[in-house]
Amino acid sequence: MLFDRHARSVYRYVAQRLGDHVADDVMSETFLVAFERRSAYDVSVSDARPWLLGIATRLMRKHDRVEAVAWKGLSADMAAQIVPDFIEQAGSRIDAERLSRRLGKALRRLSDGDRDTLLLYAWGDLDYASIAAAMQVPVGTVRSRLNRARRQLRRAAGITTLEQETDHGRVDTAPQHS
């Protein structure tokens, strides 16, 4: 039942980070680890997805080299998914490709914690509290990591924005005019 309910979202998250060729293995290993650690799971938590994505995130660290290659090959796709507004602001395809390369490089330069937090937010579609549970860190750490990652991506894109955090963990941004 747990597998049927969450396998698709775990697979999608892993495939976006590592590619389809590794996603099956990591997804399978995620559910194996979850089964082995089932006694540690807090059954009062109704949604196991954050817990599973946290396990998958930790397992992906074993695949750092695969992920590094995937970052290079998928930087345009990642940039388009994580920061689509940045791409839309680019005036031409060449500008968009340059921007994608800069953003891909900025993503690779993020610390593991910042990148994992950002991708759990962007691709795992988790809110702050769920990311905190998945990463086993306080919500304040999630906020700091996301803020730092966004700032670095904006800097790489050459865009300055004012942020206003909404009450559900998503951020509304508005361009800052000088």
Automatic annotation (TrEMBL):
Keywords: DNA-binding, Sigma factor, Transcription, Transcription regulation. Residues 2-63 form the RNA polymerase sigma-70 region domain. GO terms for molecular function: DNA binding; sigma factor activity. GO terms for biological process: DNA-templated transcription initiation. Residues 101-153 form the RNA polymerase sigma factor 70 region 4 type domain. It comes from the Bacteria. The keyword Nucleotide-binding does not apply. Residues 157-178 are annotated as: Disordered. Gene3D superfamilies: 1.10.1740.10, Winged helix-like DNA-binding domain superfamily/Winged helix DNA-binding domain (1.10.10.10). SUPFAM superfamilies: Sigma2 domain of RNA polymerase sigma factors (SSF88946), Sigma3 and sigma4 domains of RNA polymerase sigma factors (SSF88659). The keyword RNA-binding does not apply. Pfam families: Sigma70_r2, Sigma70_r4_2. Belongs to the sigma-70 factor family. ECF subfamily. NCBIfam families: sigma70-ECF (TIGR02937). This is Sigma-70 family RNA polymerase sigma factor. It comes from Microbacterium tenebrionis.
